[in-house]
Amino acid sequence: MTTNLATETAQRQASDSTLTQGLTTEIATRLADDDTLQVNITAEASSRTAQDANIQSQVTVNTNKLGVLLDSGSAMDEISEIIAAYSAADSSLQTSLTNLVNLRPLTTYVDAQDNVLTSSIATEKGRVDALVSGTTVDTFLEVKGITDTQDGRLTTLESTSATQS
């Protein structure tokens, strides 16, 4: 019986030790989590304060605009007057939209010229490929020399043709 009591006492002490360690770990974890939570709460409060100030600033701006509108000396007691005032304030937006729409022909022209350039590049590439395939050209300078020679021949033919016309 004394042995059983000693065994039971040892087991209880070990269990108490395990429980104490678990409790210590849980306390440390909770404290760390509480610190993290407090940091998050502080950050959120700071953000809310900044947003509240921003909203208040916007309210102040709109209140001032309304005050100017009401104090402008012209009574806006009919919907047509309000529409006219809004339309006048909105004219710069309409002008901007009109200017953007007017850019369409320029965009079309640029696209067309891009197609012309693409076609010209393909033609020149074909000429260079034809020149290169007909000769043993190893460097760009040799390609340039052959191209210059061909251009010289074309210039001579064009000037001869012009004088015969």
Description:
The protein has a domain at 1-69. The chain starts with a helix and ends with a helix. Helix content is 90%, strand content 0%. The mean pLDDT is 79. 0% of the residues are buried. The protein is mainly α and 165 residues long.
List keywords for this structure.
4 helices, flat, mainly alpha, 0% strand, 165 residues
Give a short summary of the structure:
By secondary structure, the chain is an all-alpha fold. It has helices spanning 2-70, 79-102, 104-134, 140-164.
Task: Supply the number of helical segments.
Answer: 4
The poorly predicted ranges are none
Task: Report the radius of gyration as a whole number of Å.
Answer: 43 Å
Ends distance: 136 Å
**Number of DSSP strand runs:** 0
Overall average pLDDT: 79
Structural class: mainly alpha
Shape call: flat
Kindly state the percentage of residues in helix. Answer: over 70%
Helix and strand sequence: HHHH
Largest sheet: none
> Beta-strand percentage?
under 5%
List the helices and strands and how they pair.
Layout: H1 2-70, H2 79-102, H3 104-134, H4 140-164
